[in-house]
Amino acid sequence: MSLDSTKQQLFQQTEQQLRAQGFAVERQDQTRPWGGFFVIDEGQAQQFADTYFDGLSVDELRISGKLSPKILIVAPGQRLSWQYHHRRAEIWRVVQGPVGVVTSDTDAEGELKTYQVGEQITLRQGERHRLVGLDGWGILAEIWQHTDAAQPSDEDDIVRVQDDFGR
């Protein structure tokens, strides 16, 4: 099976699972060169936390504003950009894996660490990070912790230090 048909099938399965769990998918993006993502309705942030983050209280997670629950899908052997954010911290939980994650407090990449299904990764505001697909497809649940109530983070709040795709 080709990578594209596997990707399409994985997206269909993931969407079906999310809907079966009662989640409203606000949008999805299968066009990313590294894979793609699903954005879940903000009003379901606590249900999302209950399902994917062992019931973490969204009130305790909420630094300011919303949590922007998402599911990330990363293709085998692909890397998201080496990046950081000015207006958010992030919490990831591995749903399907293993996956690789690189972090650092500087622009120099740290060592690639492997995370298994169920493990959680906490990324601080400004911490450099990169998600890496290993031998198989990886799936992560993600919650953003917006750190600026007046200007919540969005997809434009990405500072790319290095990017395999020239973005």
Automatic annotation (TrEMBL):
Transmembrane segments: none annotated. It comes from the Bacteria. Coiled coil: none annotated. InterPro entries: Man6P_isomerase-2_C, RmlC-like_jellyroll, RmlC_Cupin_sf. Residues 62-163 form the Mannose-6-phosphate isomerase type II C-terminal domain. One of its GO terms (biological process) is polysaccharide metabolic process. It holds the Pfam family MannoseP_isomer. One of its GO terms (molecular function) is isomerase activity. Keywords: Isomerase. This is Phosphoheptose isomerase. The lineage of its organism: Bacteria, Pseudomonadati, Bacteroidota, Cytophagia, Cytophagales.
